[in-house]
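Data availability (excerpt). The following record was deposited with the supplementary files.
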Amino acid sequence: MNRTPMPASPLGSRQEGRARWGFAAAAALALSGIGSSGWAADPLGKFAVDDRQVSVAGISSGAFMANQLHIAHSAGIVGAGLIAGGLYGCAVDSVGSDGVEGLASLAAGRCMSAPGSLKPVEHYAEMVSDFAARGWIDPPGNLARSHVYLFTGKADSVVAPRTVELAAELYSALGVPPAEIERHDQDYNAGHSWVTAGFGSECAVNAAPFINKCGYDQSGDLLQRMYGQLQPPATGLQGRFVAFDQTEFVPGRAAIANGLLDTGHLYVPQACEAGAPQTCRLAVVLHGCLQSTEKLGAEFYKKIGVNEWADTNRIVVLYPQAHATELWELARHDALSAFNVNPAGCWNWWGYAYDRQFPTKQGVQVGALWSMVQRITGKGNN
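Predicted structure:
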């Protein structure tokens, strides 16, 4: 990605500074989308899914969001896969009674390119404990039963390895047993990408579509960290893809203003259709910036190798879609509007769209994703 150099400190007043360089900082977060689908998809349905077998994984901004969803809803998620990102709260500047203030500058700076300014792991662990005490997230004690997969590529020039290392350290500090944390720290000469055995750009590339072929089946390793030994992947898919309406999961159906596309996607193996005799699992898989259907069409949700494993192992796969929100699409406009756009279609891990609860259960996107999970499982597990 093109990382615009950030000033050492905001120019002028604190608020003025955020507004003036909000666009540049958000753009520097690199990696997803464009606009709405233009047609109305069907409502998301319920499937034969065990609500105790829900996992989440993502790349880049999707990794940060996967981490947020996992920590916020740790009572209902068995594990998380974080590829090239995912340190909880690293873009949070301050905490108040009504939520948090995140900064795009912190996201693009210390969280991605200047890891020397990241705080010690104890700071992030204390933040998690504080949020739990406020009732904003589930008690972190739930994380002790989690399975965690983390990956950073040796050639990744977008997100510094230290961010992923700290994410692993945070999980350990929060009680995840060492045996349940699988960490690939520059094991492969991979650029900033979801890694596959044979599809995508060359392994060391740091460019769109951010799917790289490195001779490594990342999807298989990740899913087996979540669910244990699985059957070999399918050579031909037998299930079906479902497009569904995301707007009903956002307050006021304001998906676009909050960085969500109108339409999300689902992969449903034949064995997981409604009324199936055996229950299935659910894997939530989150694209990165510049990877939504606005930019890549179906490439991410059809080509990263997850569906082949899902098909033979009774795993429904949820592929929510983020939207590249522009200034005119925001629900409100003021001096800080430039700080609240999402030009690359990233998931919300720094507080755009005026969301002061973005890393908590009350966050618009975290809430929408969890409501999708609840719809699929048919369980109102908060």
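Summary of structural features: Residues 1-38 have pLDDT under 50 and may be disordered.
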